[in-house]
Structures are given as structure tokens and as C-alpha cells.
Amino acid sequence: MTQDPIWLDAITFDGNGLIPAIAQDADTGTILMVAWMNAESLAETFATGRAVYWSRSRLRLWRKGEESGHVQTVHELRLDCDGDVLLLKVKQEGGIACHTGRESCFFRRLDGDAGNAVWTITDPVLKDPELIYK
Amino acid sequence: MTQDPIWLDAITFDGNGLIPAIAQDADTGTILMVAWMNAESLAETFATGRAVYWSRSRLRLWRKGEESGHVQTVHELRLDCDGDVLLLKVKQEGGIACHTGRESCFFRRLDGDAGNAVWTITDPVLKDPELIYK
Q1: Do B106 and A80 lie within an 8 Å CB cutoff?
Q2: A30-87 confidence digits (pLDDT tens)
Q3: Could you write out the DSSP letters of every residue in A8-72?
Q4: Residue A122 burial (C-beta neighbours within 10 Å; 0-12, 13-18, 19+)
Q5: Does a structural domain hold residue A1?
Q6: Å from A98 to nearest chain B CA?
Q7: Across the interface, do A115 and B5 touch by the CB < 8 Å criterion?
């Protein structure tokens, strides 16, 4: 029988057995991305020190960087007061977390006034995605 | 007829009409909390420049700070590549975002090795919650 580590008990997974995880650059504080984890991916993340998520589209473990090489080394793992959001402070290999080839997935900023606002793309593409995912 | 602003079209709300929103201190980069928004709370947030969430427990708009006084002034609003997570860069009035009286909800850090880890409370209570919520 496999026994779950007791620290997993503090975590409230949702109805699908998942919890959102924020990846934040450990040095700069930049928020890189948000993805999902299940108990297995979280346990592997903590055991190996590399971010492993659960891909909701592919329905399998997603070892971040497995295709792109853009792995995330986890420096710190935090849990919020309700136990339903994780925060990973990471070192982002290659400086690119987003599948669009940008550092961060949060590259759109809402500009203008409320009635007439637009999403402005503020961050540059650092590497062509076609070169990242060959 | 009320027409939704076109910038809302870029957002993918979940099956309950909600999207998670990360509040990050605009100056320090500290991640303060994660809460949920619906279209109405997001539109009010952008229109007023103050963070308004949707309370999933109380099933109503939650104007952050309405009881505690700990309002969040929104400096920037960002959206991720998938359009399903928001990032708010805020100024946190009172320096306390968490209902426990701490600056951040992410006050627990996972320490130890994988087989024998514990959640360590790393952040001090800045104000007794009983004095915050009178």
C-alpha cells in the first residue's frame, strides 16, 4: 500500500483532485505562469525539486520543460491559508515559462478606461515557439 | 440591454462563470492572495480601481476591505496566455491581505525532505483578526 505523506493532508484538492499552482521567479518576483497539480505531481515536484504539473488537456503528468528544456527548479513551496492554492518559487531555465516564447504567461495588460479598454501585449517573444517545440 | 465590454471576450470563465485572480503587491512583488472573480466583479474592479472579488462561500460580490478596511487599489490588470487567470498588481491598504491578519495568505512553507515534510508558518500575524473583523 502506498501511503500519502501527511503534509498532503493540509491541501484541499478540488472536485477533480487538482489544485492551482502559481510559479513565481524566486529572484525577481515575476509571476511566470499558473498550472494545475494533483497529489502525484505535487509529491514528485517536492521529491525531485523540479516542477511537475498535471496537464488538464493531455490528462497526464507534465514535467515542465520535458519538451522545451525550460524546466523549473523549485526553491520554495508555499500553501495559502485555505489550503487550496500553491505557490512555487522557481528558477526558470531559459528564462521562458510561456508556450508563446515569452518569460511570463501574463503578457497582456488591460489599458484604457472601463468602457473602452484593450489588452496590450507588453512582453516580447524571446524565442520563436517553433524553435522551442521541435 | 446591458452590453458586456468587448475586452471581457478575451477571458475564459470556468463552468461557474468564475476566473481566479492573483493579487500581487505592485511594489514588492509579494503574492498576497488568490480569489475569484465573475464578469461583474471584474468590470467593477476595472471601473473603480479597487479589487472586487466574487465570494464563493457567500455567493455575492466581495469588495475587498469592505469589513476590514484593507482595500486593494489596482495598479495593473493582466491576463495570462490561456485567458483563464488574472493578475492584479495592487497596493494593499494596511499591509494585510489575509484574514489571519498576515500580509500574505501564503504564509506556510513546506520544509524537510519528501518523506517527512512539514508546513512551517513563516510569516507573523500583524494584527489580531478579532480586531480586524469587529
Answers
A1: yes
A2: 999 999 999 999 999 999 999 999 999 999 999 999 989 999 999 999 999 999 999 9
A3: GGG----TTS-EEEEEEETTT--EEEEEEE-HHHHHHHHHHSB-EEEETTTTEEEETTTTTS--E
A4: middle
A5: no
A6: 8
A7: yes
- Whether residue B21 is contained in a domain is answered as yes
Average pLDDT in chain B: 94
- Give residue A123's domain range: 6-132
User: According to the annotation, is A111 in a ligand binding site?
Assistant: no
CA angle B9, B85, B8 (to 5 degrees): 15
Q: A25 a known binding residue?
A: no
Judged by phi (left if over 0) then psi (alpha if -120 to 50, else beta), residue B123 lies in beta
* Whether the Cβ atoms of residue B11 and residue B42 lie closer than 8 Å to each other: yes
Q: Helices in B1-134 by DSSP H: which ranges? A: 39-48, 129-132
| Residue B10, amino acid | A
User: Which residues in chain B have their CB less than 8 angstroms from residue A107's CB?
Assistant: 78, 81
What is the spatial distance between Cα B15 and Cα B84, in angstroms, rounded to a whole number?
12
CB contact under 8 A, B46 and A110: yes
Q: How many domains does chain A have?
A: 1
- Tell me if A69 is assigned to some domain: yes
Residues of A with CB under 8 A from a CB of B: 5, 7, 10, 20, 22, 24, 28-31, 33-34, 43, 46-47, 76-82, 85, 87, 98-100, 102, 105-110, 114-119
**Least CA distance to B10: which residue of chain A?**
A119
Q: How far is A49 from chain B (nearest CA, A)?
A: 10
Q: Is position A103 within any domain?
A: yes
Q: Looking at residue B34, which CATH number applies to its domain?
A: 3.10.20.810
Q: What is the pLDDT of residues B93-131, one digit of tens each?
A: 999 999 999 999 999 999 998 778 999 999 999 999 998
